[in-house]
Design brief:
- The complex is a heterodimer.
- Chain A is mainly α.
- Chain A contains 19 helices and two strands.
- Chain A has one domain (3-496).
- Chain A has a two-stranded antiparallel sheet with strand order 1-2.
- Chain A is globular, with a radius of gyration of 22 Å.
- The N and C termini of chain A lie far apart (50 Å).
- In chain B, a hairpin with a 2-residue loop joins strand 1 and strand 2.
- Chain B folds into two domains: 3-304 and 316-567, no CATH class; 575-645, no CATH class.
- Chain B is globular and about 115 Å long.
- A two-stranded antiparallel sheet of chain B has the order 1-2.
- Chain B is mainly alpha-helical.
- Helix content of chain B is 72%, strand content 3%.
- The chains are: A mainly alpha, B mainly alpha.
- Chains A and B meet through helix 6, helix 11, helix 16, helix 17 and helix 19 of A and strand 1, helix 5, helix 6 and helix 26 of B.
């Protein structure tokens, strides 16, 4: 048994523990113990990974292991990690850990689904077999329906249905794409590395086929990555989801999209990415600007954050589509940064909503005097979101922009500059929000009686802020780690994609 | 690496630590302890900066040719970006060291002053934490070794400015002003960022050590890329330094506590744009001299515009704010009028005499920081005394506040350019450089200098002489401020008195060679500008000194529209308001949001509805009645038969 599998094993044991647990205290015990183990495990993995790299191990994937699973169909259970997946595992652990504290008063069934969701997420990030990956992807998506439908707020049935149906629609595209790749590559293996490196790397998938399967796979994952115009599940879904589910969903699940686009769609079909990437690049460019402008006029806190996520996740896909090592590193950094920042935002929104019972910014004001801790953290989250140096957003955005700018043609330049404008618009909606709800004087008598954060809430929030600040003030190590994971993928894409120039804008 | 300067890291580390400490644990400390922590760390920074300056200017700063060199005591890769890298480090050269002195002096004085001014305010600890954050960021900005590090700290000073303007966060104008300041400067920073991206891509470096990187030369051959990059960076600088038309945030920023206005919005942060142009100056002069004309004329127009508006304002802080805009524009002009050798003998060398504007700009930056901080701190004392910013609440204040009165008068004389106060010397250099550039520019700047003297003395007489608001004064009993507030005034005034005699030309010049101050000082020009300033002051005295001001009223009545326009700052704020609210919010954002809900979302809802309806229709086939099944079976069989036959 490879030790990466422990990442899936722990959530399974947690499920067992939760099933056996009889009272709230033991439920919390199981959750805290389990998520702490996961956090420690990912920290250990990071250290081991860095040591291994420092020792000169340059294999694409480390700690690999493979077991036959469904032999006639060539499906294997294969695991392995590179710099990108280590970063993602670390992110997931932080979010699951803090999410546990944020959902302190939830019941057993909720935690069961929550844990199952995280099992899916971990499984996805450690897999290097397309089918296993897809299976874990589905495992992560389905609990969402129940978590929103049962424990959500507002029009929760509609939101849960919409979210699930749209993501399932994406999965349908994705499945077509995956089988297309499988048969296109000869129908012998589902292993990503094997497909990529078959016959000394000369890619087996026929170019005409790549042109069909690339858009399907990319759009399939893109739905989860909030790619315009498939993003509309995000505002409704997030608005209705309970706090920790929003955190996990925006923080980690949306990253599955970007990760999959990079790891499967682009890595396995370089020519497809080269020829058709521009379509998606335009769409992500629209996402970035469109999401930011939409957020400016929203009045629901969660809608603002959801549209902000559309904009920031747009930057993730934008970065990877630049097919440039620096930009792609920036994209992964942006995944980390957006995951943490948005989780922090949703946590704080949940806490404020839990007290004021409203998320309408017109009905709140002067919260700074009433709940200083939450308000100060909200300001910090806002500043981190608008890319203040010292927080993770800054380094991620700067890396993406510097990388994108290296694509020295007008098409890429114009898109990069358009994406840059989002940093101004982000400042507009964040400051508008902060000015409206936190500053000023409270006009609502009811609000004056509210209390500030409890200890478990404070703990969760401080952990998230600490991670964001640590990432933002000492970015070199994580940047180097991610870079080591991105480099072979980008090299592979650039090496096996002939410049056929199907982009009409170039 | 020059390890003997390694201690300069402390200059950044001390305020950072005090920020962290006060930010995290400030609420547990008493006001006094929190203030003391902030002030002590700044005091140490002040001493360290003095020591650094001493070591640099009189010690190892000069190389064997007697030219001040750029030292890099510390530099490390902070974020690798492929071929490029984002470094963090410390760079010491004459302008950086000069800025260290300016920032640490004014900041230290403001820290002391705030003890008195902010006494008993709620959030006192938070205030000191933000001050520390600001000082750290500003110091980091000036010692940056590369343009990206500058941008990083540039953003940080922006956010500390935002936090400090919005310090009184329960008041609506403060919230609006802080938001405006941040967004306007952020908008300008967008151009700065794009400029950096262009520069980084073509020069393959972000570093300021231009000489060592041969790639700059290749960059220069990439057509207009370098001038474009520099111009975009200048737009960023124009945002921070409140150049027209991006100046609109600065007057509103006066909503912040007055010591903050003195520190951030008069002496240090607002000159960041000038500093940035000065930093990139070797590139400007060598590769983009034509673009430099734009800098000069934007500066000249801003100087004129702000001076005109300042003549009509009634809020004392607003007058000072517009005066600041105008004076910063003087510095920009001084940089803009530097031209390479006219005969084109060697385009990369700056003619020694033509480079005088660069020196003048930095000189004026230094003297202006001192006297403008004095003016703002005096304004703080006055506001403290009468609880109002309006000139109408003042008048005749000289009787109540002698120290404030005298320090204010000296600073006014300095800014008007009366010898022997510091402003005379620095402004004279600027005028000289302007005349060398073109006589038109020279006369324009002289005219604006005259306006400066006029509005400053209008302000002076309005506050300390003029019509006294006796009712109001009987109510609030104005009195001189405590020592914590008067000491900084006296200290900064003392610097203003002597700063003009600092041989600035010896330490700062565009090409590193020293100017002989006495030899090139243009006495005729000095006498001329001094004479014009005196006439303006006389005019202001004639109009505004008396108890009754018939001439002022007459002037106002003679041109009511002009006065109204100037008072309303030529309605520029309304134009911006229109653009942001009407166009951006109402037409762009609202339209996009509506489009999203109605069409994109509508499409997916339509899909869901369609599927549902389809299912509803098909449902009829599963009716359960045998006859119907048999009928359909029959039809199907018939169809199959037809297919087979055909």
């Amino acid at each position: 048994m490879n030790f990466l599998s422990i990442f899936v094993l722990i959530p399974l044991l947690m499920l067992l523990g939760l099933w056996l647990a009889r009272d709230q205290k033991s439920i919390r015990g199981v959750m805290v113990a389990g998520s702490t183990c996961l956090l420690i495990l990912s920290a250990v993995l990071t250290v081991l990974f860095l040591q291994e790299r420092a020792a000169g191990n340059t294999a694409e994937m480390l700690f690999t292991a493979s077991f036959d699973w469904i032999t006639p169909l060539h499906i294997k259970y294969s695991v392995g990690v590179d710099g990108i997946s280590v970063a993602m595992l670390l992110l997931s652990s932080v979010i699951v850990f803090t999410g546990t504290f944020v959902s302190w008063y939830m019941n057993k069934e909720y935690f069961l689904w929550f844990t199952l969701l995280s099992a899916g997420v971990y499984g996805f990030f450690i897999s290097i077999d397309m089918f296993t990956m897809f299976m874990f992807y589905e495992v992560a998506l389905i609990p969402m329906y129940l978590l929103i439908g049962v424990w959500g707020t507002g029009p929760k049935e509609y939101a849960a249905m919409k979210l699930t149906l749209m993501l399932m629609g994406g999965s349908a595209f994705l499945m077509c794409g995956i089988f297309g790749i499988f048969y296109g590559a000869g129908g012998q293996t589902m292993d990503i590395l094997d497909i990529a490196h078959q016959q000394n790397g000369a890619h087996l998938i026929d170019i005409a086929q790549q042109h069909i399967w690339f858009p399907l796979t990319f759009a399939g994952f893109g739905v989860l990555g909030a790619l315009f115009p498939f993003h509309t599940w995000s505002p409704d879904g997030h608005a209705s989801a309970p706090t920790a589910v929003s955190m996990l969903h925006a923080g980690v699940l949306m990253k599955l999209g970007g990760y999959g686009c990079f790891r499967i769609a682009m890595f396995l079909m370089p020519q497809g990415a080269q020829d058709l990437g521009w379509i998606f690049l335009v769409l992500t460019g629209i996402s970035v600007v469109y999401g930011a402008f939409s957020a400016c006029v929203q009045t629901d806190l969660k809608y603002i954050n959801a549209y902000s996520s559309v904009s920031h996740c747009g930057l993730v896909l934008f970065g990877i589509l630049m097919v440039n090592q620096v930009a792609a590193t920036g994209a992964v950094l942006q995944m980390l940064s957006h995951g943490l920042t948005t989780a922090l935002f949703f946590a704080l929104i949940g806490m404020i909503y839990g007290r004021t019972h409203t998320r309408d910014i017109r009905e709140m004001s002067g919260l700074m005097r009433i709940m200083p801790f939450l308000s100060v953290c909200y300001v910090i989250a806002g500043l981190a979101n608008l890319g203040l140096p010292g927080f993770s957003g800054f380094i991620a955005e700067m890396t993406i922009f510097v990388g994108s700018f290296a694509n020295a043609d007008t098409f890429h330049r114009v898109l990069t500059i358009a994406a840059c404008t989002s940093i101004v618009v982000t400042a507009v909606y964040i400051l508008r929000l902060v000015g409206k709800i936190l500053y000023g004087v409270s006009t609502n008598e009811e609000h004056l009686k509210l209390d500030d954060a409890h200890w478990e809430e404070r703990f969760a929030v401080i952990c998230l802020i600490g991670t964001i600040a640590a990432l933002g003030s000492a970015p070199w190590w994580v940047s180097n780690m991610i870079d080591s994971g991105v480099a072979p993928v980008v090299e592979h894409i650039t090496a096996f994609a002939a410049n056929t120039n199907l982009n009409p804008f170039m | 690496m020059e390890t003997q300067f390694l201690y300069t890291i402390l200059i950044l580390a001390l305020p950072f630590c005090s920020f962290l400490f006060l930010g995290l644990f400030g609420h547990k400390l008493s006001h006094k302890v929190a203030g003391l922590i902030g002030t002590t760390s700044l005091g140490l920074v002040f001493l360290l900066s003095l020591y650094t300056a001493f070591e640099y200017f009189f010690g190892i700063g000069r190389n064997v040719q007697g030219i001040y060199q750029a030292l890099v005591p510390y530099n490390t890769t902070w974020l690798p970006l492929g071929n490029l890298h984002f470094d963090m480090g410390i760079l010491l050269d004459p302008i950086a060291v000069m800025m260290l002195i300016v920032i640490s002096t004014v900041s230290f004085m403001v820290h002391i002053y705030s003890f008195g001014y902010m006494h008993g305010e709620r959030g006192f600890q938070r205030y000191y934490a933000f001050l520390s954050l600001f000082t750290m960021s500003m110091l980091g900005l000036v010692v940056a070794t590369n343009i990206f590090q500058m941008y990083l700290f540039w953003e940080l000073v922006g956010v500390s400015s935002y936090l400090l303007i919005g310090f009184f966060y329960t008041e609506k104008p403060a919230i609006a002003a802080s938001k405006k300041a941040f967004i306007v400067t952020r908008f300008a920073d967008l151009f700065f960022l794009i400029g950096i991206l262009i520069y980084g891509y073509y020069a393959q470096t972000f570093s300021f050590s231009f000489v060592e990187t041969g790639s700059v030369r290749e960059f220069a051959s990439a057509a207009f890329m370098l001038p474009t990059a520099l111009f975009l960076m200048f737009i960023g600088g124009a945002g921070k330094s409140a150049m027209f038309p991006l100046h609109i945030w600065l007057p509103d920023a006066m909503e912040g506590p007055t010591p903050v206005s003195a520190l951030i919005h008069a002496a240090t942060m607002v000159v960041a744009g000038v500093y940035q142009v000065a930093r990139m100056f070797p590139l400007w002069i060598a590769y983009a001299p034509d673009t430099l004309h734009i800098v000069a004329w934007v500066g000249a127009f801003t100087a004129f515009y702000a001076a005109a508006v300042a003549c009509a304002q009634s809020d004392i802080k607003r007058v000072l704010a517009f005066s600041t805009i105008s004076q910063i524009a003087f510095m920009m002009v001084a940089l803009g009028v530097c031209m390479p050798l006219p005969n084109g003998a060697s385009p990369e060398l700056i003619d020694h005499e033509f480079g005088i504007g660069y020196m003048a700009s930095m000189f004026h930056l230094f003297t202006h920081a001192m006297f403008k901080a004095t003016l703002f701190l005096c304004a703080g004392c006055l506001i403290h005394a009468v609880h109002s910013n309006e000139m109408s609440a003042m008048g005749g204040m000289r009787k109540y506040m002698p120290i404030t009165h005298w320090t204010f008068l000296i600073a006014c004389l300095a800014i008007s350019g009366i010898p022997p106060f510091s402003g005379f010397f620095s402004k004279d250099e600027i005028l000289e450089a302007s005349f060398a550039y073109s006589p038109v520019m020279g006369w324009v700047m002289t005219g604006i200098a005259a306006m400066t003297a006029f509005y400053m003395f209008r302000l002076y007489y309005g506050i300390f002489w003029g019509t006294e608001n006796k009712e109001h004064h009987a109510e609030c009993h104005p009195h001189e401020s405590p020592l914590a507030m008067t000491f900084p005034l006296l200290f900064l005034t003392a610097i203003t008195l002597v700063a003009g005699f600092i041989p600035f030309g010896k330490i700062i010049s565009a090409d590193g060679l020293a100017y002989d101050f006495l030899a090139h000082f243009n006495w005729a020009l000095g006498a001329k500008s001094c004479f014009i300033a005196l006439i303006s002051i006389g005019l202001a005295t004639w109009i505004y000194k008396g108890e009754k001001q018939p001439i002022a009223d007459k002037m106002q009545n003679a041109a009511p529209h002009l006065h109204r326009w100037a008072f309303k700052r030529f309605y520029l704020d309304e134009v911006y308001q229109f653009i942001t609210h009407r166009i951006i919010f109402k037409y762009i954002s609202a339209t996009i949001a509506k489009f999203d809900r109605k069409y994109i979302d509508g499409f997916f809802n339509f899909l869901a509805w369609g599927t549902h309806e389809l299912g509803f229709q098909i449902r009829g086939f599963q009716s359960g009645s045998i006859q119907k099944y048999a009928f359909i079976f029959f039809l199907g069989a018939l169809a199959l038969l037809l297919v087979m036959i055909l």
